[in-house]
Design goal:
Beta Polymerase, domain 2, Four Helix Bundle (Hemerythrin (Met), subunit A), Polymerase_NTP_transf_dom
Length: about 260
């Protein structure tokens, strides 16, 4: 258990553990995220994985909101289809405010994981630990070709919004590009899992400074310059592990598009 757990975090860990332990349809409670891979602090979420008996799974999924409400102080909750995880219930509890993720899975789902979770409770701890020992644990890092196939399309999309004068759309696309491409590639350069832009400020000050060049103010020239910085940064990071197939005409054509009068 992280030594930095606050009293609020500890209280909710105990609430969820007691709730799982008292429901015979639920066989184990696991914790992931910062709880296991480090960096836990007073602002951290709690990421729970709840293992459900096969025959009760549909019933438990249908009552997820009631489960979250039973923990106490539930302010809002919604399911995670937008991140491709319909089994997930994303919750806000408080005050004090705390973000809690509840993912309901079958034991058979433990065969493929993105991280090794901690076991907080299990009716058969030996069986659950054996499942985790045998699991394939792999962070879903993107390949060089995944980045290359998407980078120029996304950059052009944002540049087109800029050309139309839709500055906020263009700025939003830059944020998306940092999250999906530049941040993961910066993590790749440092040998870390590709976790978006998480903690780049703390882990690599020079990279964070470069990344700041892709954050414009609400001004067409500033946004254009940020796209040019993003292009240069992508090319530099791409050279670490080049894709098998480079996109034709890039970056020259996109630079011309961004600088039509040059």
């Amino acid at each position: 258990m992280p030594s930095t757990l606050t009293s609020c975090h500890l209280e909710f860990v105990e609430r969820v553990r007691n709730r799982v332990e008292n429901d015979r349809r639920l066989t184990a409670l696991l914790a992931g995220g910062s709880y296991v891979h480090g960096g836990f602090d007073e602002h951290s979420d709690l990421d729970f994985v709840i293992v459900v008996e096969d025959e009760s799974y549909r019933e438990v999924l249908a009552s997820r909101h009631a489960f979250a409400k039973s923990i106490g102080n539930l302010l809002a909750a919604f399911t995670g289809e937008h991140v491709g995880e319909p089994r997930l219930l994303i919750c806000l509890h408080g005050p004090p405010l705390i973000h809690i993720d509840l993912k309901f899975v079958l034991q058979s789902d433990l065969g493929r994981l993105v991280e090794r979770p901690a076991v907080l409770f299990a009716r058969d701890a030996r069986e659950i630990e054996a499942c985790l020992d045998d699991a394939s644990v792999e962070w879903p890092n993107a390949s060089p070709d995944w980045f290359e196939q998407r980078a120029w399309v996304w950059l052009h999309y944002g540049a087109a919004k800029l050309a139309r004068g839709e500055l906020f759309e263009a700025m939003g696309m830059l944020g998306f590009f940092r999250e999906q491409v530049l941040g993961p590639m910066l993590h790749r350069r440092s040998g870390r899992p590709q976790r978006g832009v998480r903690r780049i400020e703390a882990q690599d000050a020079s990279s964070a400074e470069r990344l700041a060049g892709t954050v414009p103010v609400v001004d067409a020239t500033s946004v254009r310059n940020a796209y040019l910085v993003a292009i240069d940064m992508y090319l530099d990071l791409r050279a670490d592990d080049p894709p098998l197939r480079l996109t034709e005409c890039m970056p020259e054509v996109l630079r011309e598009y961004l600088n039509p009068d040059s």
